[in-house]
Amino acid sequence: MGFRIGIDVGGTNTDAVILDQNLSPVAKTKTPTTPDVSTGIYQAMSMVLQQGAVEPSKIKYAMLGTTHCTNAVVERKRLNKVAVIRLGLPATGAIKPLTGWASDLRQAIGNLQFLVKGGHEFDGREIAALEEQRLREIAKEIKGKADSIAIIGVFSPVTNTHELRAAEIMREELGDIPVSLSHEIGSVGLLERENATVLNAALVDVARTTAAGFIAALQREGIDASVYFGQNDGTLMAVDYATRYPILTIACGPTNSIRGASYLAKQKNALVVDVGGTTTDVGVLVNGFPRESSIAVEIGGVRTNFRMPDLISIGLGGGTIVRNERGITVGPDSVGYRITEEAMIFGGKTLTTSDVVTALGLAAMGDAGKVKDLPKETLDQAYGQIVAMTEDVIDRMKTSSEPIPVILVGGGSIILPDQLAGASEVIRPAHYDVANAIGSAIAQVSGQVERVFSIDEMGREGAIQRAKQMAIEEAIKAGADPDSIDIVEIEDVPLAYLPGNATKIRVKAAGNLVV
Amino acid sequence: MRILDIQAIEDIALGAALLGTGGGGDPYVGKLMAIQAVEEFGPIKLLEPDEVPDDALIVPTAMMGAPTVLVEKVPSGEEVMSAFNSLESYLGSKIYATIPIEAGGVNSMIPLALAARMGIPVVDTDGMGRAFPELQMVTFHLNDISATPMVLCDEKGNSLMLNTVDNVWTERLARNATVEMGGSVMLAIYPMQGLQLKKSGIHGIITLTEKIGRAIREAKVNRMDPIKTVLGVTNGFELFRGKVVDVARRTVGGFARGESKLEGIDAYRGQALTLNFQNEHLIARTENEVLITTPDLIAVLDAETGRPITTEGLRYGARAVVIGIPCHPHWRTAKGIATVGPRYFGYDLDYIPLEERVLSNKGGQE
User: Fold this and answer.
1) How many domains does chain B have?
2) What DSSP assignment string belongs to A414-449?
3) What residues contact A372, with CB distance under 8 A and at least 6 apart?
4) Which of A121, A292, A402 to mutate against chain B (most B CBs within 10 Å)?
5) For position B364, what pLDDT does the model report?
6) Are strands A59-65 and A13-19 parallel, antiparallel or unpaired?
7) Per the omega criterion (within 30 degrees of 0), is the bond before B353 cis?
8) Is B78 in Cβ contact with A497 (below 8 Å)?
9) ipTM over 0.95
10) Which helix (H) or strand (E) holds B208?
């Protein structure tokens, strides 16, 4: 077994760590995130290697959690031209594809949409036979105009046959063109799943370029490693999988920090409080994975049914500004990365949360002498608010009224105390400042299936067995060692109002990387 | 008469989520349908009830079936037109206008989309003033207006006309046909004359829905307390403020039943509230007393934004304000209470109007 390097791109900093065979950190670094993202990644990589803890040739795995895809959507840059093909006529015409998208984003992806006869009912019957001839015509029409295809069939999470056949036809006509199929990306909820599938199709080139750039940078440093990308559920995807499902890399950052905290603190069920320079993100760790949000998530202004970690973010970080105007207030604004110039302990003029804890003797940073004359009352009040804000958000995220462990990570977590209301204990693990990069490096690989099954056909047990098998197959495809795979999550929800015993089953399987 | 623009549709959708009292289906899909219809076919005319001639044919429209299906198999938009056309030829008369039967939830939006597409007006009236789960739970039923002849249509082009002996049979037959037709259908139902509409409907409801939505939107912009503004618009009462500590759901006979518990905050610290729901919120009570029952409206709002929270969206830790809104007087008749009161839903409780409960509970505390 070799060493592994983990890199995680955050809003302010890009962090890198190197772990040994036992997954213990041997080197770590932080460098500012650059506007193009890649430069910061390469910088972090070379800085952490320069510490000389390990020969580059001994690094066998490289894990990257990056914001390339999110940025591309937000900036509307480098996106593929996507042909959106919805299989649903005569249904679905009342709301056209890309409804609610900003017009600049529509234009950036080419605004090519087609509605075709096909798709299924909730119980698997066809709405209409798939209109194959029309698909062949569309293929001719989009030749030269689209370089990626998104195919969305009504109720494809129940029955995927029309999507698969449509993909086959497009490949017959157009050769090796990237095709994103909605049943592989989202669950029931046509518009949100369609949006996520279209974004996925639009990100194919961004993902390929990012992966190629990362691999080339590793090789320049003398590293010949298997490369993985972090995804938003806290597990890894092998490169070829990530380039097919780039949308899954969106928002892996918060997940990485929760998983890293879990690993460092050796806790599987806890609250994770990640304090950066500007914000504090609080997430919930359930059986070693982040609790997922049930609410529709927007990416670049587009509504998706994508699952993100359930997080609450508040404007509290190490650089948060403390004011004394008509009473003491904390935030929500921050000096951010300029903390080393603007905070008083570093010779600046702005009173920040870091100054408050230093003046109170609760942490040692910068020059404590510069804040020794601040009035005790101001400090106490500000500190009281910092604690109250944190305790309030902890209370909101807890899943029961019982106290549970709270893990503090992130560079800004020094502003928080060792005791918090609602916490059975407050844990500050070693290497708390690079928990996100560690989370990226230690991640497992997973496969997930979320589909509506008809219990009448195969029985409840049969349906769950089938779902488990599918999840395990997905995990193997993603690069998991078949012998190490466990089912980490099963959820079985009968659908309200839907007769015929339809039930939605979600299974996630996770395992160690193939070594 | 006035014109509903896209902002009005947005506001009505938000207000309809509140009048959905926790259920009724997310208006989101309906809102997008209505907006697309306005963009393609032009604006929607909203009529005052007294602008409708007494002998005009009014046909309400709605979707029936599972909201889960509606969000996946989005309608074509054409199906309800064929329902209207076949009803017109059966009755031998032109349809003058449409209305929602249900102002709460997704069904607030279906008539707007249809009206734009067909170029007919919508009357500012509905048959519930809120959301309810069954076809006979409308004030038209209280006035012995028959739900039939009604037409169910799917997007495939199938349509089915029902003529039934009573509205309970209508519900039973229509529900089964809905399953066969793919789980979500469009209805043309309760055809009635202008005079009947004026006598039996709940008037001004679309305008009220719009005002609620606008109040929530503008409170955010103007940094005002959204709860206070909503209470002002609806003549409602704040019943409780608390944090959700438990939600238990189960699906019984196709309905999402359950209860949630809130632990009091602010002035309600030390108290606990239980909410019973069956798709919609039906009962709210503390350990000592019942605060409100159906058919009065129970809405759960996000304490910060004032936005309505559905029974599905209730999660542990959410800070919520529970408000009560008096139902329309039509529901407070003996037949109204028999149709939608607590006993119809299986709760052994008498219906006491919200205002009386608020008065006596206050009296008890002082």
Assistant:
1) 2
2) GGS-S--TTEEEEE--TTGGGHHHHHHHH--EEEEE
3) A359
4) A121
5) 44
6) unpaired
7) no
8) no
9) no
10) helix B205-221
